[in-house]
Design brief:
alpha+beta; four-stranded antiparallel β-sheet; two-stranded antiparallel sheet; 12 helices; elongated; disordered N terminus; disordered C terminus
């Protein structure tokens, strides 16, 4: 998958619905004008508007089938729209300029924000000078003001929606107490790691981590103290684990660490370091916090469920499993 395309697995379902909706609106409202232009023997306008309709339909078809090509929209569909609008303004004056308004909004609906900015800058750079060239000053000034307003409103609207969408995504994917990833991302991350191992034989290691006697901490010191311990563990794991690795809070006092390009021996060293660091931290005023850890390095033909279960089993056995021989307890 190149930088010029990506699947809609990585995109919000809102993007799919929006692009398909834009295509439907364009077909319903622009197709009659396209046919009318051919009827009036305005073949260039008819061909231009028909090209926009067809390209919109192709784009919507791709999105509906899980393929999204923002860069191709930027260098393919957007220039066709700008050229069509420029010729429409040249041929029809104010009537042609009116089509710029839905075009401005459609760019923000179809493209990622940074691409939409570029497309609209080009559109405005083309349409505004032409409006002053082919319209009288009074109409041109009003057209300029209203088109800039529509563009600004679209920017504000998309920016607010984008911020809210990112916040909702973070809430859905992140454990609110520790800031670590939650179970929502777990299955996909483990599947991806298995696929990377199968394709490139890259070693992958899981570390299961469980806090010892955590219920006793909550019962004797209160849940606030327990939450402080979990937050402290979360900060340590985020600081110690590489950016390429992933840390999940599975729930309660259970954590799972996914180490990319890490074999069993390296995984053991990481686990041992974490055990010592956690035990030496001043998470509670009168006692140290200890952990049980289990290691499982991905084996050939092993699926992610069995891999995760093996790591979990090793933790509950209080053993670090590194092929042969078995390592001593880490508690």
């Amino acid at each position: 998958m190149t930088t010029y395309s990506k699947t809609l697995i990585q995109e919000s379902p809102i993007r799919v619905k929006t692009i398909v909706g834009v295509a439907v609106v364009v077909f319903v409202f622009l197709m009659p004008f396209s046919l009318y232009n051919f009827f009036q023997e305005k073949y260039i306008l008819g061909t231009g508007s028909l090209s926009v309709v067809l390209l919109m339909a192709i784009n919507a078809w791709n999105c509906w089938h899980g393929r999204y090509y923002p860069f191709l929209i930027l260098i393919g569909l957007a220039p066709i729209i700008v050229i069509f609008l420029g010729f429409a303004i040249y041929q029809q004056g104010l009537i042609g300029l009116l089509w710029c308004y839905p075009a401005v909004i459609s760019f923000y609906f179809m493209l990622p924000e940074r691409y939409a900015w570029g497309a609209n800058i080009v559109l405005l750079a083309m349409s505004l000078p032409m409006s002053w060239l082919f319209l009288d000053a009074e109409l041109a000034s009003r057209a300029t003001a209203t088109l800039l307003c529509v563009s600004a409103f679209a920017v504000i609207f998309v920016r607010v929606i984008s911020i809210q969408q990112n916040e909702l995504h973070d809430l859905a994917m992140t454990d609110s107490l520790t800031g670590l990833s939650n179970r929502v991302q777990l299955h996909g991350s483990l599947k991806q790691a298995v696929q990377m191992y199968e394709r490139h034989v890259i070693p992958m290691t899981l570390i299961s981590l469980d806090l010892d006697n955590f219920k006793k901490i909550n019962d004797t010191l209160g849940h606030d103290a327990g939450d402080d311990v979990l937050r402290g563990i979360g900060k340590l794991l985020q600081k110690r684990i590489r950016r390429s690795d992933k840390v999940f809070r599975l729930g309660g006092e259970e954590f799972l660490i996914l180490l990319y390009e890490t074999d069993a021996k390296e995984g053991f060293l990481v686990a041992e370091e974490l055990r010592k660091k956690i035990e030496s931290m001043q998470l509670l005023p009168d006692r140290s916090v200890t952990t049980s850890l289990g290691i499982a390095t991905l084996q050939p033909n092993e699926n992610w469920r069995d891999w995760m279960k093996r790591s979990d089993d090793n933790m509950y056995l209080s053993l670090i499993h590194i092929s042969e021989p078995t390592r001593p307890r880490l508690i």
